[in-house]
Design brief:
By secondary structure, the protein is an alpha/beta fold. The protein has a single domain (about 1-209), classed as Metallo-dependent phosphatases (Purple Acid Phosphatase, chain A, domain 2). The protein contains five helices and twelve strands. The protein has helices at about 1-10, 25-35, 90-105, 120-125, 195-209, and strands at about 15, 40, 45, 55-60, 65-70, 85-90, 110-115, 135, 145-150, 155-160, 165-175, 180-190. The strands form four sheets. A six-stranded mixed beta sheet has the order 4-5-7-8-10-9, covered by helices on one side. The protein has a two-stranded parallel sheet with strand order 1-2. Strand 11 and strand 12 (about 180-190) form a beta hairpin. The longest helix is centred in the middle third of the chain and has 12 residues, at about 90-105. The radius of gyration is 18 Å and the shape is globular.
Amino acid sequence: MIEAMNLMGYDAMAIGDLDLELGPEVLRQRIAEAKFPILSANVTLASSKELLAQPYTLLEVGGRKVGIIGLTWDFGGAVPSTIQGQFTVLKADDVLAKYVAELEKQTDIIIVLSTMGYDEDRRLSSLVPGLDLMVGGRSRLPSPEGWRNDKTGTIVVQAGSQGEWIGRRQLHLDSAGVVTSHSDELLFLTDEYTDDPEMRTFLDNYKVE
């Protein structure tokens, strides 16, 4: 999977709750193999209390500085026994506020990659001001138009699951870096879309091996 994602040219990925089932050693191996940052601002190692991965990354897109924070579902506080003793998942509310405040000093726009679920993303968008976009997972919800928080201006989107959809969100910013408008597009990947030749070769070779 990491090889395929490297081939696709990802900019960043957030660690999901099911990824934690792999354990810290395997996860660290996968993080090292990735040619893109794998993020989580709230997963720490139970033994050392250190973050498993980097909490955020900084990119430059369209001449703008962009901060991307990774957020892992905190199990609603009920961490399963399968990962107890290996990881501690910090409460998302406190962690997110901390890193948004840190990034606001460095960036024009802040994006959160979240595996908290759609309802939690909406709640956090009200609780933590300063977020421009939350790209979520876990709820597996195709969100063609997204949802914008009237209070904070945060846009919350999801693009289904299993790689069936491609979501595109275009943000329009003013000179101060404030999102003034946005456009949304959600594409369902039917058989009408031809396979990428390089990826097709990779998958065929993988099946042979």
